[in-house]
Amino acid sequence: MSSVEVAPTLVSAMATDERSCFDAFQREFDYLCRTLRRLGVPADEVEDQVHEVFLVLARKWREYDASRPLRPYLFGIAFRVVAAFRRKHRRERPSELAEPVDSRPRPDEALEAAFARGLVLSALTQVPLPRRAVLVMHDIDEMPMREITEALALPLFTGYSRLRKARREFEAAVKALQKGTKEP
Fold first, then answer.
1. What is the pLDDT of residues 64-92, one digit of tens each?
2. pTM higher than the cut 0.85
């Protein structure tokens, strides 16, 4: 086989890899947006940070083992992107990360749901990022602890310890926020 015949095969394989990476990214776009919001990225920065996740995913796509679930792998990338984002924007206060309330007139149920979302997001900002990541992956995204610890490169018992602490911190934050605000 000559080198001329190998080159088109390599190019074809690379194009297929790039396409499958992009397809996977498109399928998980909404998941990534929700995850980044839950990890404390302000709403106006979410799309930029999703783009950052995609760039990392594209660089690391060949390392991804397709026999494993994609979401924990994406969460690990998103977690590291958020950590870098937070290091870059240290001066922001957690209260600035709360989800804005939609100003359009809405039914009472929708208003209560928006209040609950805002309360959860505000309470999540009170939990330190390493523990928040475990809490979001386990309690919200319902991922098994083994997948979480693999995605975040943690020992299993450290993952459970972080989850336990994060739940306590989250509960305390919710109670504190509920004392300070009245439901609509």
1. 888 888 889 899 899 999 988 888 877 65
2. no
Number of domains present in the structure of the chain: 1
State residue 156's pLDDT score: 94
162, 134 in Cβ contact below 8 A? yes
What single string gives the DSSP state of each residue in 122-159?
Answer: HHHHTS-HHHHHHHIIIIIS---HHHHHHHHT--HHHH
| pLDDT category of residue 112 using cuts at 50, 70 and 90 | confident
Answer yes or no: is pLDDT of 40 > 60.
yes
Q: What is the mean pLDDT of residues 15-43?
A: 83
Give one DSSP letter per residue of the chain, joined into a string: --HHHHHHHHHHHHHHHHHHHHHHHHHTHHHHHHHHHHTT--GGGHHHHHHHHHHHHHHHGGG--TTS-HHHHHHHHHHHHHHHHHHHTTT--GGGGSPPPP-S---HHHHHHHHHHHHHHHHHHTS-HHHHHHHIIIIIS---HHHHHHHHT--HHHHHHHHHHHHHHHHHHHHHHHHHS---
Cα distance between residue 146 and residue 155, in whole Å: 9
